[in-house]
Amino acid sequence: MATKGTVNGIIANMVTIVVDGPVAQNEICYITTGSDRLMAEVIKVEGSNAYVQVFESTRGLKIGAPAEFTGHMLEVTLGPGMLSKNYDGLQNDLDKMDGIFLKRGQYTYPLDKESLWEFKPLAKVGDTVIAASWLGEVLENFQRLKIMAPFRLEGEYKVKSIVSEGQYKIDKIIAVLTNEAGDEVNVSMIQRWPVKIPMLNYDEKPRPFKILETGVRVIDTLNPIVEGGTGFIPGPFGTGKTVLQHAISKQAEADIVIIAACGERANEVVEIFTEFPELIDPHTGRQLMERTIIIANTSNMPVAAREASVYTAMTIAEYYRAMGLKVLLMADSTSRWAQALREMSNRMEELPGPDAFPMDISAIISNFYGRAGYVTLKNGKTGSITFIGTVSPAGGNLKEPVTENTKKVARCFYALEQERADRKRYPAVNPIDSYSKYIEYPEFRKYISKKINDKWIGKVDEIKNRLQRGKEISEQINILGDDGVPAEYHVVFWKSELIDFVILQQDAFDEVDAVTSLERQESILDMIIDICHTEFNFDTFSEVMDYFKRMINICKQMNYAKFKSDDYYKFQKELEELIAERKVAEHK
């Protein structure tokens, strides 16, 4: 019999309910107010009092309102038909809802029960299966999606029956499984899974090492992220977090892209809805939206739904990873998620940590990032979730708790800088403060030596050192003036500017320059390193500046030309002639 209760305290979205039976942490309940049923989640239990966070506005809710507990946690419904969908944080299908604004207490089913799917069996009668074993597959938006044994299965089961190839609805029983005790499990194409519990349906989780090509040079060349890796992009307002996320979403080598707009302003979320359907996938030439799922949660929605949205997105990502797919999950912004945690913690009068965030904010962030990763499935196949979150620190302060705690767990750090953005040096990623821990891993070094060459990492380290040296000389020039430092110092500075303009800066709105293949990045890196190793002959600092400005202009024109095209070779020849003008002759 379901536990019932009565509301006896309301603080904004946190409601206290006196219950008449047992309730569990994270259990879902519905509170009735007027004609509306408001969904809520248990976040704390003290004796007969259950503290719940309501996923809707509590306006008009009164003491004494009845509540009924469901006996299960907040779950997502998984199955064919999720690609190209727009969901809210509770996985309601936004496209099925009426009107401009979401109505309180209105919930929609996330999948389409009427559509027919072409099912192809992969298992046969008599096969032994376990949780998440592949039973069959369907084709959705040119993606082969697996229909799996229920994730909740414990132990081994035999396939008693499975339907033949044909068209079926998602709620049709496609297989019957039985265990040694004779218990039967009916399997449809639909799965349900609690969002707060990680899916552990894999064999092992090795350290990731395969580079995830994003086409963004400042990432791929200087601080690469790997397939199944974690990274985050902190930066103040206006530094280009959203544009960089869009570029990575569009260009990264991923099978599925999930965008979690967590607590963003409504106009930015609308931008995602209007822009993403227009984007073309550079890998397939098809619409990017065909392999994208958007979880939208605006800043004016209740904080509890904001907290749920990131877990909903991660659970959907884990579902596709169990199919052996490469998933890219982008969360914008995890700061808003942390602020939701802070708000609920404060309402529960918990002891506050730094900046009033919960004391366990570090563990919460760590556990969430830990759900991403590269895994080997039980059948020997591999799947991955690459997670990149953005952080919006107040006033661009990278010392605040969310940034600091994320830094501890995310392996890649892409610091967006206001100064670079103000100087229109996009993407405004600070190349000196940013880092990738993956570049230190022996597995990655071995992989990159085979994929590119064994000198790649040494060249990248040299580029970073030259950028650091260029920054130091720039400060000296600012203090002493152009005449106050020797010409050779100006050469070192302008070589670092060459690296900045040609490798770091990229035009996200140019068809060619927006995406740079790894082969082309190798060519650009080799070209810049050769120039940096070349000795030039100058008498005054003005000669240095004029010469390198000409060189930067030619190199940028090369970036805008198609790789190995006639124009590309024309600019390459111009560059060679320019280098010959000032190159110091080598003595034999």
From TrEMBL:
Residues 447-529 form the ATP synthase A/B type C-terminal domain. The keyword Ion transport applies. Signal peptide: none annotated. Residues 16-71 form the ATPase F1/V1/A1 complex alpha/beta subunit N-terminal domain. Residues 110-196 form the ATPsynthase alpha/beta subunit barrel-sandwich domain. GO terms for biological process: proton motive force-driven plasma membrane ATP synthesis. One of its GO terms (molecular function) is proton-transporting ATPase activity, rotational mechanism. Residues 215-436 form the ATPase F1/V1/A1 complex alpha/beta subunit nucleotide-binding domain. The keyword Transport applies. NCBIfam families: PRK04192.1. Belongs to the ATPase alpha/beta chains family. This is V-type ATP synthase alpha chain. The gene is atpA.
